[in-house]
Amino acid sequence: MELFEQLKEIFGLSLIKTQDVNFTLGALVALVFAFFATSFILRFFRKFVTRKLPIEDRNKFISIFQFLQYAIYIFVLMFTLKASGVDVTVLLTASAAIFIGLGFALQQLFQDLIAGILIILDQTLHVGDIIEIEGKVCRVEKISLRSTIAVTRNQRVMVIPNHKFLSDILFNWTQKSNIIRENVEVGVAYGSDTQLVKKILIDCAKNHPRILKEFEPTVMFENFGDSSLDFALYFFIDDGFTVPGIKSELRFEIDQQFRNHNISIPFPQRDVHIYNQNS
């Protein structure tokens, strides 16, 4: 009984004492124990839920779980302090102005976090997707709650705040499939054999090793231009990051084949007529 009274006296020792707040050693011990217990339970729950999930779904769940556990820790903090006899309403009232200020200061951060959760839940974006945003084409490397890491074709790392995906237009080239259609445009001189031009363009696409053979390339007669007959060669590939290289190789080959068949690629010309008013 005497030992119990001694422990009660020790745990009742005030560490912080004001007119409204009395934070004792016992409250500190209870708070530390509550945090350790909560951390253990959350870790066990996370491992239990994710043990059979695929790696991609597991990473998504962990991202959302990390966001939720902050709210759980705050709840545990308030509950433990309240159970230990600390008047938490005083603390909340005193910090209300700070919370409001932080809310305005961290408004962008909250938008990023909410956008990150929505991206993970609605499956609009995946690691490995090729996207186009603000005119830049890049491959998604990592999706976190606050931002998305992507790498451009020039191997430059882009850190994209997640709220951008809610406010800006995003083109996801690979959301439905990795296969995308591209085209190369070319003009030939008036009087050229259009059927021969079509055959050359299709052969160039069929002979390219990185253009998919299971999809037939097509040629469209686009327009009667000012100085040329305009054609477009359409083809399919399975890696959007290789588009610039494939287009360059196709243009080299098309130029060579046109030379071999005496098909000229014209340049813009203008006829200037000079009138002599004195004559």
Oligomer: single chain
Helix content: 40-55%
- Going across the major beta sheet, what is the strand order? 6-5-4-3-7
The domain tally reads 3
Q: What would you call the shape?
A: elongated
Poorly predicted residue ranges: none
Domain Mechanosensitive ion channel MscS: 109-174
Subcellular location: Cell membrane
Family: Belongs to the MscS (TC 1.A.23) family.
Organism: Flavobacterium arsenatis
Question: Would you summarize the structure shown here?
Answer:
This protein starts with a helix and ends in a 19-residue tail after the last helix.
Please provide a written account of the structure:
With 279 residues, the protein is of the alpha+beta class. The chain has three domains: 104 residues, no CATH class; 49 residues, Roll (SH3 type barrels); 81 residues, Alpha-Beta Plaits. The chain contains eight helices and ten strands. The strands form three sheets. The chain has a five-stranded antiparallel beta sheet with strand order 6-5-4-3-7. A three-stranded antiparallel beta sheet has the order 8-10-9, with helices on one face. A two-stranded antiparallel ribbon has the order 1-2. The longest helix has 29 residues. The model has no long low-confidence stretch (mean pLDDT 78).
Chain-wise SSE layout:
Elements: H1 2-11, E1 14-17, E2 22-24, H2 25-50, H3 55-83, H4 88-105, H5 107-122, E3 130-133, E4 136-143, E5 147-152, E6 157-161, H6 164-167, E7 171-172, E8 180-188, H7 194-207, E9 218-224, E10 229-237, H8 243-260
Antiparallel strand pairs: 1-2, 3-4, 3-7, 4-5, 5-6, 8-10, 9-10
Helix pairs in contact: 2-3, 3-5, 7-8
